Give the backbone structure.
Amino acid sequence: MAPTPIILRPYSEDDFEILRATLGVAEMTAYLGGPESEEKLRSRHARYVALPNTGHDAMFVILAGPQQQPAGTVGYWEHDYQGQPAWETGWAVLPGWQGQGIATQATLAAAALAHAQQRHRYFFAYPTVENLPSNAVCRKAGFELLGTSAYEYPKGNPITSNVWRLDLQALP
Ligand SMILES: CC(C)(COP(=O)(O)OP(=O)(O)OC[C@H]1O[C@@H](n2cnc3c(N)ncnc32)[C@H](O)[C@@H]1OP(=O)(O)O)[C@@H](O)C(=O)NCCC(=O)NCCS
């Protein structure tokens, strides 16, 4: 079956509901320390809306299907990997749209946009080892598995994550 077509558009003022439907619900945050409070979501929303004016980080809404409906989010932000500047990336796809290759395509589309900035060579992603769909996205998108890392996310919640790296220079 042909993959569901997607495009990315910058996250904007009108996108709070998609943020709430991803980081605000238990089902979507099972591997991310649980749903964020309304206050945290509101401050995250304000930060995302301001991103185009505040630096190089980027957040997008994924529009999927022929009607270009909001299906999730993908973004990247500056990150220090063992003293080297890089990008970290993250994604979320709403339950009704999962299993159609949307996160994989969206990650590669975001990687192409990051590559065009010519700022950092690598995308890093840190799904917890139990987050099988997210690890599958990394594998399918061509990330290389470097190992694991133990840390706290959110603070006070110990997790073990896989460390995945994508070389933006090697994108087709
Ligand atoms: C992770 C997530 C974005 C994946 O979105 P998606 O659009 O369904 O991803 P894709 O369709 O591109 O790929 C998902 C892959 O995971 C696989 N998968 C799904 N459930 C799985 C499971 N329980 N075990 C193993 N693989 C699984 C799918 O089969 C698919 O691989 P395939 O195409 O080879 O069949 C989505 O599940 C999500 O939003 N989860 C909650 C938020 C989250 O955890 N974000 C990641 C933070 S690091």
Helices lie at 16-23, 38-54, 102-117, 132-141. The CA atoms of residues 30 and 142 lie 25 Å apart. The chain has a mean pLDDT of 96.
